[in-house]
Automatic annotation (TrEMBL):
Its main location: cytoplasm. The keyword Transmembrane helix does not apply. Residues 8-83 form the Sm domain. Gene3D superfamilies: 2.30.30.100. Belongs to the snRNP Sm proteins family. It comes from the Eukaryota. The lineage of its organism: Eukaryota, Fungi, Dikarya, Basidiomycota, Agaricomycotina. Component of the heptameric LSM1-LSM7 complex that forms a seven-membered ring structure with a donut shape. GO terms for molecular function: mRNA binding. Pfam families: LSM (PF01423). PROSITE patterns: SM (PS52002). Keywords: Cytoplasm, mRNA processing, mRNA splicing, Phosphoprotein, Ribonucleoprotein, RNA-binding. This is U6 snRNA-associated Sm-like protein LSm1.
Amino acid sequence: MDSLIPFTTSGSLVDCVDKKMLVLLRDGRKLLGVLRSYDQFANLVLEDTVERIHHENSYSDIGRGVFLIRGENVVLLGEIDLDAEDMVPITPAPIEVMQQLNKQEIDERRRRDNLKAAILFEARGFCKEGGEGDGY
Protein backbone atom coordinates (compact mmCIF):
# COMPACT_ATOMS: atom_id res chain seq x y z
CA MET A 1 0.00 0.00 0.00
CA ASP A 2 2.82 2.43 0.85
CA SER A 3 4.29 1.96 -2.62
CA LEU A 4 1.15 3.52 -4.10
CA ILE A 5 1.70 6.80 -2.26
CA PRO A 6 3.97 9.07 -4.33
CA PHE A 7 7.13 10.20 -2.58
CA THR A 8 7.26 13.98 -2.42
CA THR A 9 9.19 16.38 -0.24
CA SER A 10 6.19 17.49 1.77
CA GLY A 11 4.72 13.97 1.86
CA SER A 12 7.86 12.66 3.49
CA LEU A 13 7.25 14.93 6.51
CA VAL A 14 4.01 13.22 7.52
CA ASP A 15 5.87 10.84 9.86
CA CYS A 16 7.56 13.80 11.61
CA VAL A 17 4.40 15.54 12.79
CA ASP A 18 4.09 15.66 16.61
CA LYS A 19 7.77 14.80 17.06
CA LYS A 20 10.59 16.92 18.47
CA MET A 21 12.68 18.26 15.61
CA LEU A 22 15.89 20.20 15.07
CA VAL A 23 15.78 22.82 12.31
CA LEU A 24 18.91 24.52 11.00
CA LEU A 25 18.12 27.77 9.21
CA ARG A 26 20.05 29.51 6.41
CA ASP A 27 21.17 32.24 8.80
CA GLY A 28 22.76 29.64 11.09
CA ARG A 29 20.16 29.60 13.86
CA LYS A 30 19.26 26.24 15.37
CA LEU A 31 15.65 25.73 16.48
CA LEU A 32 14.27 22.84 18.50
CA GLY A 33 10.54 22.28 18.76
CA VAL A 34 7.61 19.99 18.12
CA LEU A 35 6.56 19.91 14.45
CA ARG A 36 2.83 20.61 14.38
CA SER A 37 2.15 21.34 10.73
CA TYR A 38 3.69 21.83 7.29
CA ASP A 39 2.53 22.51 3.75
CA GLN A 40 3.55 21.68 0.17
CA PHE A 41 6.29 24.35 0.27
CA ALA A 42 7.84 22.82 3.41
CA ASN A 43 6.75 25.81 5.49
CA LEU A 44 6.85 24.52 9.07
CA VAL A 45 5.01 25.28 12.28
CA LEU A 46 6.98 24.42 15.42
CA GLU A 47 5.46 24.52 18.90
CA ASP A 48 7.35 24.94 22.19
CA THR A 49 10.28 26.19 20.13
CA VAL A 50 13.62 27.16 21.61
CA GLU A 51 16.57 28.69 19.82
CA ARG A 52 19.73 26.92 20.94
CA ILE A 53 23.01 28.79 21.14
CA HIS A 54 26.07 26.67 21.76
CA HIS A 55 29.79 27.16 22.16
CA GLU A 56 32.12 24.20 22.61
CA ASN A 57 30.48 21.99 25.29
CA SER A 58 28.00 24.56 26.64
CA TYR A 59 24.61 25.76 25.45
CA SER A 60 21.71 28.06 26.29
CA ASP A 61 18.14 28.01 25.08
CA ILE A 62 16.02 31.05 24.28
CA GLY A 63 12.30 30.36 24.39
CA ARG A 64 10.51 31.29 21.15
CA GLY A 65 7.08 29.65 21.55
CA VAL A 66 5.17 28.93 18.34
CA PHE A 67 7.44 29.48 15.35
CA LEU A 68 6.48 29.66 11.67
CA ILE A 69 9.39 28.90 9.34
CA ARG A 70 9.33 29.63 5.64
CA GLY A 71 10.44 26.49 3.80
CA GLU A 72 13.10 28.19 1.69
CA ASN A 73 15.01 29.07 4.89
CA VAL A 74 15.35 25.47 6.07
CA VAL A 75 18.77 23.94 5.52
CA LEU A 76 18.33 20.83 7.65
CA LEU A 77 15.42 19.19 9.44
CA GLY A 78 15.92 16.21 11.67
CA GLU A 79 14.10 14.28 14.36
CA ILE A 80 15.60 14.35 17.83
CA ASP A 81 16.03 10.99 19.50
CA LEU A 82 14.55 11.67 22.94
CA ASP A 83 16.37 8.71 24.51
CA ALA A 84 19.80 9.79 23.25
CA GLU A 85 19.21 13.50 23.85
CA ASP A 86 20.01 13.23 27.56
CA MET A 87 23.29 11.40 26.89
CA VAL A 88 24.88 14.24 24.89
CA PRO A 89 27.79 15.59 26.99
CA ILE A 90 26.91 19.31 26.93
CA THR A 91 26.08 21.51 29.88
CA PRO A 92 23.74 24.49 30.25
CA ALA A 93 25.33 27.92 30.65
CA PRO A 94 23.99 31.41 31.46
CA ILE A 95 22.31 32.99 28.44
CA GLU A 96 24.27 36.25 28.79
CA VAL A 97 27.60 34.44 28.47
CA MET A 98 26.44 32.35 25.52
CA GLN A 99 25.01 35.35 23.67
CA GLN A 100 28.31 37.19 24.00
CA LEU A 101 30.30 34.19 22.78
CA ASN A 102 27.83 33.68 19.92
CA LYS A 103 28.10 37.34 18.89
CA GLN A 104 31.90 37.12 18.85
CA GLU A 105 31.73 33.96 16.75
CA ILE A 106 29.32 35.57 14.25
CA ASP A 107 31.47 38.70 14.00
CA GLU A 108 34.59 36.61 13.37
CA ARG A 109 32.81 34.52 10.70
CA ARG A 110 31.53 37.70 9.01
CA ARG A 111 35.05 39.20 9.05
CA ARG A 112 36.53 36.05 7.47
CA ASP A 113 33.78 35.90 4.84
CA ASN A 114 34.33 39.55 3.91
CA LEU A 115 38.07 38.93 3.62
CA LYS A 116 37.49 35.90 1.38
CA ALA A 117 35.03 37.86 -0.78
CA ALA A 118 37.51 40.72 -1.17
CA ILE A 119 40.28 38.33 -2.21
CA LEU A 120 38.02 36.55 -4.70
CA PHE A 121 36.86 39.89 -6.13
CA GLU A 122 40.23 41.61 -6.37
CA ALA A 123 42.59 38.75 -7.15
CA ARG A 124 40.37 36.26 -8.99
CA GLY A 125 37.75 38.43 -10.70
CA PHE A 126 34.70 36.96 -9.02
CA CYS A 127 31.69 39.22 -8.70
CA LYS A 128 30.32 40.48 -5.39
CA GLU A 129 27.05 38.58 -5.08
CA GLY A 130 25.13 37.09 -2.22
CA GLY A 131 24.73 38.49 1.20
CA GLU A 132 23.43 37.76 4.65
CA GLY A 133 22.23 34.17 4.87
CA ASP A 134 23.58 33.05 1.49
CA GLY A 135 26.15 30.74 3.08
CA TYR A 136 24.25 27.63 2.06
